[in-house]
Design goal:
By secondary structure, this protein is α/β, with parallel strands linked by helices. The protein has a domain of 105 residues: Rossmann fold (3-Layer(aba) Sandwich). Helices cover 51% and strands 13% of the residues.
């Protein structure tokens, strides 16, 4: 399973810098360390949202948040939202299937060939745009599904 391309939602990136998140911080750091070695593709949206959240919530100074975002750009292959992904996200949002921003991240990842989104914010085990939405947190541990997705 670890050969499948996947993406990370913004919340995983934020937990990785938020030491006050306890077990979620530890698991998120583990996910990112493994994701770098795997077939993870980050959306430019997730990196941008990471910078916004980290600096707005003063988790990191703006320059440190920007430097961390730039590191993500180097560490991971990235994908940008296309016009068709925006159209899909608008349709999903209007239909009430997802928030616009969640739908845009998923539609962009789907166009990039991803099969899974690791996220805490969307319905675990459901599908959107043909991608599985999976919560990588199982209490204080990495979920069994996420462990299978990430390389050893």
């Amino acid at each position: 399973m670890s050969g499948e391309p996947f993406t990370l939602d913004t919340n995983i990136l934020v937990y990785a810098i938020d030491k006050s998140a306890g077990d979620r911080h530890i698991v998120a750091v583990e996910i990112i360390e493994w994701a770098v070695k795997g077939r993870c593709r980050l959306t430019l949206q997730a990196i941008s949202e990471f910078y916004s959240a980290a600096s707005r919530k003063q988790m990191l100074a703006r320059q440190h948040a920007a430097d961390t975002a730039k590191q993500l750009l180097v560490l991971f292959p990235t994908v940008a939202a296309s016009a068709s992904a925006v159209g899909t996200a608008l349709a999903l949002s209007v239909a009430g299937r997802a928030s616009y921003w969640d739908a845009l991240l998923v539609a962009t990842a789907a166009e990039a060939g991803c099969t899974t989104v690791l996220t805490e914010d969307m319905a675990d085990g459901s599908e959107l745009c043909g991608l599985r939405l999976a919560n990588p947190f199982d209490g204080p541990n990495l979920s069994a599904f996420a462990r299978r997705l990430l390389p050893e």
